[in-house]
Amino acid sequence: MSLRPERQAPPEIFYNESEARKYTTSSRIIEIQAKLTERALELLALPSDGIPRLLLDIGCGSGLSGETLTENGHHWIGMDISESMIDIALEREVDGDLLVSDIGQGLGFRPGSLDGAISISAVQWLCNADKSCNDPRARLKAFFSSLYKCLARGARAILQIYPENTQQLEMISTAAMRVGFSGGLVVDYPHSSRAKKYFLCLSCGPPSTSTPLPKAKGEDGGSESEDDSEDEENETVDVAERQRPAKRLKNGKKVKGRAWLLKKKEQRRNKGVTNVPRDTKYTGRKRKTRF
Amino acid sequence: MRLLTHNMLSCNIKGVTKGFPLSIEVQRLDTKDADFNPDFLRNIFPKLEWKAFHDAAVSIGLNDIPEQVDPTMLEDHEFLQKFHHALLEVHLEEGALICPETGRRFPVTKGVPNMLLHEDEV
Ligand SMILES: C[S@@+](CC[C@H](N)C(=O)[O-])C[C@H]1O[C@@H](n2cnc3c(N)ncnc32)[C@H](O)[C@@H]1O
């Protein structure tokens, strides 16, 4: 079974030239990073006065997330530990300023200097102790306490993360709350194991009752169709990026039955999809293994 | 790296209490056009450490940033253009940033400062 990237090597090693190259060539990765960034910006809830803000992109990588910030008119500073990823960002001629920096060593910015921060698919890397000198808890603490300091009062940080399990999720959120952040977790598409996305939404300063935590997407089964499309996209990125084990076909047993399939097909027809195959007596039957 | 970023950066080596402002060692500069947006300039102005911005501008050869400023100047178009140029259009491409307290040198290559700390600096 393939391991999550976080378990294979430290980020500066994993994100080598060839891995970084994927970020310029895979349209799926590009699209997903852009989508996640749009969502993070939405959750960042900056004033809608059209004034560009100065934002931080934590684990900016090849600058895909940053490009979305630029498209939305903002200035940004991106930091990443992988020089190969930064090189790709330079190649793409992104508009943000870039820094080679390890967020686990803390962020070196003046207090209150930034209007907000986003991070797309990076912070879970801090949970790995890939060198003897790396203590995940100490690194999370250094990261969050410095992040808290460098944000302007009332500013927010939106961190989209891929935690490996609930312990990791808790370790990250606890570290954030401990340094004084308020806020919490927004889980988009919570009912879909693949489309599910975690956004840790943090505010600098005391919790305010006037700004409740934003609502998650796809919480009610109602937007299931959207779930599906997300599913497909993620599946492909997952393969390239996360290498999930193929759960569905474990020892050739189908996890989802005929009834489920018929329902899904019906839903797609109702949505106006025209190329849904007819329902026949073969629908949902196990295929013979042929060689 | 532009002076905008320089004005926010601070050295965070363990034990350093005054890591700002980093001084700039210039080997090569570059100029790139940026969209002129007076609203952005007015909005960022109170967040800048002006003296550090002024000194940094001088150290990269921009001598038309006034040492003393007051918010009324933000209505002066000519001032705003100089401010804009120094803040957003001049890039340090090759050189270094130097911690004011320890003298530690952070190299800047291809416009990117390398702020990674050594193990004993964390
Ligand atoms: C999945 S990539 C996402 C890149 C970018 N946000 C995007 O949307 O394209 C995760 C990035 O996090 C970076 N990263 C991991 N650990 C880091 C650390 N300790 N400090 C800085 N960056 C880190 C990796 O180098 C990698 O570029």
UniProtKB/TrEMBL annotation, chain A:
UniProt domain Methyltransferase type: residue ranges: 56-155
Region span, Disordered: 210-291
Localization per record: Cytoplasm; Nucleus
GO cellular component: a single term: nucleolus
Keyword Lyase: no
Regions of compositional bias (Basic residues) in chain numbering: 245-271
InterPro entries per the UniProt record, alphabetical: Bud23-like, Bud23_C, Methyltransf_11, SAM-dependent_MTases_sf
Domain 18S rRNA (guanine(1575)-N(7))-methyltransferase Bud23 C-terminal: 202-289
Superkingdom, natural source: Eukaryota
SUPFAM superfamilies: S-adenosyl-L-methionine-dependent methyltransferases (SSF53335)
GO biological process: callus formation; lateral root development; maintenance of root meristem identity; rRNA (guanine-N7)-methylation
Biased composition (Acidic residues): 221-238
GO-annotated molecular function: rRNA (guanine) methyltransferase activity
Keywords from the UniProt entry: Cytoplasm, Methyltransferase, Nucleus, S-adenosyl-L-methionine, Transferase
One Pfam family linked to the record: WBS_methylT
UniProt keyword annotation of Coiled coil present: no
Family: Belongs to the class I-like SAM-binding methyltransferase superfamily. BUD23/WBSCR22 family.
Protein's recorded name: Methyltransferase type 11 domain-containing protein
UniProtKB/TrEMBL annotation, chain B:
Example of a GO cellular component annotation carried by this entry: cytoplasm
A biological process term (GO) from this entry: maturation of LSU-rRNA
Pfam families the UniProt entry points to: Trm112p
InterPro entries: Trm112 (IPR039127), Trm112-like (IPR005651)
CDD domains in the cross-refs: Trm112-like
Gene Ontology MF terms: protein heterodimerization activity; tRNA methyltransferase activator activity
PANTHER family assigned to the protein according to its UniProt record, in alphabetical order: MULTIFUNCTIONAL METHYLTRANSFERASE SUBUNIT TRM112-LIKE PROTEIN (PTHR12773:SF0), UPF0315 PROTEIN-RELATED (PTHR12773)
Family: Belongs to the TRM112 family.
Assembly information from the UniProt record: Interacts with TRM9.
UniProt name for this protein: Trm112p-like protein
Source organism: Marchantia polymorpha
